[in-house]
Write a structure and sequence with these properties.
- The complex is a heterodimer of chains A (236) and B (188).
- With 236 residues, chain A is mainly β.
- Chain A has a single domain, classed as Aromatic compound dioxygenase (Protocatechuate 3,4-Dioxygenase, subunit A).
- Helices cover 4% and strands 26% of the residues of chain A.
- Chain A has two helices and 14 strands.
- In chain A, the strands form four sheets. In chain A, strands 5-4-9-10-11 form a five-stranded mixed β-sheet, with no helix packed on it. In chain A, strands 3, 6, 12 and 13 form a four-stranded mixed β-sheet that branches. Chain A has a two-stranded antiparallel sheet with strand order 1-14.
- The longest helix of chain A is centred in the C-terminal third of the chain and has 5 residues, at 192-196.
- Chain A is globular and about 55 Å long.
- Chain B is mostly beta strands and 188 residues long.
- In chain B, the strands form two sheets. Chain B has an eight-stranded mixed β-sheet.
- The radius of gyration of chain B is 18 Å and the shape is globular.
- The mean pLDDT of chain B is 97.
- The chains are: A mainly beta (236), B mainly beta (188).
- Chains A and B meet through strand 2, helix 1, strand 4, strand 5 and strand 10 of A and helix 1, strand 6, strand 7, helix 2 and strand 11 of B.
- Strand 2 of chain A pairs parallel with strand 11 of chain B, so a sheet runs across the interface.
Chain lengths: 236, 188
């Protein structure tokens, strides 16, 4: 099994002047490409014993009392580029509260903290690659970039697949949010179809009557090439 | 028309943003009680065989400013060249919120195949749109057969991947994201 080389055309560019923080933090020289080695093709494995009972319930996991906001299920599957499920993947999420405020000393936004909302959760995918979180819809918020830039509602996702070379951090957006096409961070992705795949549709099939709405967000990690004629690159 | 390949496309990366620690190391930023401890505090137990070493470093942007909101992850084999089991060999290092220094207490990995001993790093932060891959190699090792280091076109850049020995069991590895002395970043 060999990791398929990353197709960077579906990713954001490193240097994106519209997102000012990227200007001084983007490498200017070319990345050095090569075949993945054992350091990239292996990775940490996290067991279910890592998880606490409420880790995937952001509504209750901070104090045990419910957080304020619109109750939602966020669910989906982690797949690879060969469309195979990735079981046992650690999925970590973090987000602002319903008012658009993060529990962080550097976030001084006007919206108040919610005493019952910490803002993080984690779970491990099942045999079919599926995962689920119960949370509240995060608020949109302004941020210092352009003179009046706003982040659309979003949830940050960190995903471990089966190898360190699959490591991915991304953000999920919500269907219908009018701030999506205005966002300088989303605009770092040149390929509109790649942007579309970051937008979770409303999923009434998983909504719970008189309880919560649901959004579906599938995540695709790098896949592995499988061939009967596996060669090793010269020198490796 | 041709047959469809029926393959999927990798989900696009997005920056980890300024609040990555809320999700990845919540206890480190004072969000306590959700997870017993942060993930990846140490890569190996204290009694792991091998040479126990400490690697410290900073990450500078293109203006020479040290990043204080960065998260570094590492993955390596042990002193016998074995990866795992479980999460053994994995560590997560948030840079110090004041000094920007990150610290990795680990064992020196063995070389694997022709590759010299090295630790794989993955770096995310605000302003980094897709996680940056790089490697720590070690001063004093023989790198003459390492496939990656020997085929770098710009051999003057090899030194950006080699941690400097600063003591019996300590190394320094500073990363420059951009500009003079820019670290070699990888696409493996």
């Amino acid at each position: 099994m060999t990791l398929i080389p990353r197709n960077r055309g579906g990713h954001p560019v490193a240097y994106a002047p519209g997102y000012k923080s990227s200007v001084a933090r983007s490498p200017k020289l070319a990345l050095i490409s090569g075949s993945a080695t054992p350091s990239e093709q292996t990775g940490p494995v996290f067991g279910h014993d890592l998880l606490g009972e409420l880790d995937s319930n952001l509504i209750l996991n901070f104090t045990g009392e419910p957080a304020i906001g619109e109750r939602i299920i966020v669910h989906g599957r982690v797949l690879d580029e060969n469309a195979r499920p990735v079981p046992g993947a650690l999925v970590e999420v973090w987000q602002a509260n319903a008012g658009g405020r993060y529990r962080h000393k550097k976030d001084g936004y006007l919206a108040p903290l919610d005493p019952n909302f910490g803002g993080c959760g984690r779970t491990i995918t099942g045999e079919d690659g599926s995962y689920e979180f119960l949370t509240i819809r995060p608020g949109a918020y302004p941020w210092p970039n352009g003179p009046n830039d706003w982040r659309p509602m979003h949830i940050h996702f960190s995903v471990f697949g089966h190898s360190f070379g699959q490591r991915l951090i991304t953000q999920m957006y919500f269907e219908g949010d009018p701030l999506i096409p205005l966002c300088p961070i989303i605009k770092t992705i040149p390929d509109q179809s790649a942007v579309d795949r970051l937008i979770a549709p409303l999923d009434m099939s998983r909504a719970m009557p008189l309880d919560c709405l649901a959004y579906k967000f599938d995540i695709v990690l790098r896949g592995s090439r499988q061939t009967m004629f596996e060669n090793k690159m010269e020198g490796l | 028309m041709v047959q469809p390949l029926n393959t999927l496309t990798e989900t696009a990366s997005q920056t980890a943003g300024p609040y990555v620690h809320i999700g990845c190391t919540p206890n480190f930023v004072g969000i306590e009680g959700i997870y017993d401890e942060d993930l990846g505090l140490v890569p190996f137990p204290k009694d792991e065989p091998g040479e126990h070493i400490t690697i410290t470093g900073t990450i500078q942007d293109g203006t020479g400013t040290v990043l204080r909101d960065v998260l570094v992850e590492s993955w390596q084999c042990n002193a016998e060249g074995k990866f795992g089991p479980g999460s053994r060999g994995f560590a997560r290092m948030p840079s110090d919120l004041t000094t920007g220094i990150w610290t990795l207490n680990t064992v020196k990995p063995a070389g694997v195949g022709k590759q010299s001993p090295h630790i794989a790093l993955w770096i995310v932060a605000r302003g980094i749109n897709i996680g940056l891959q790089t490697r720590i190699y070690f001063e004093g090792d023989d790198h003459s057969a390492d496939p990656l280091l020997t085929r770098l076109e710009h051999q003057s850049r090899v030194e950006t991947l080699i941690a400097k020995k600063t003591g019996d069991n300590s190394y320094q590895f500073d990363i420059r994201l951009q500009g003079e002395g820019e670290t070699v970043f990888l696409d493996l």
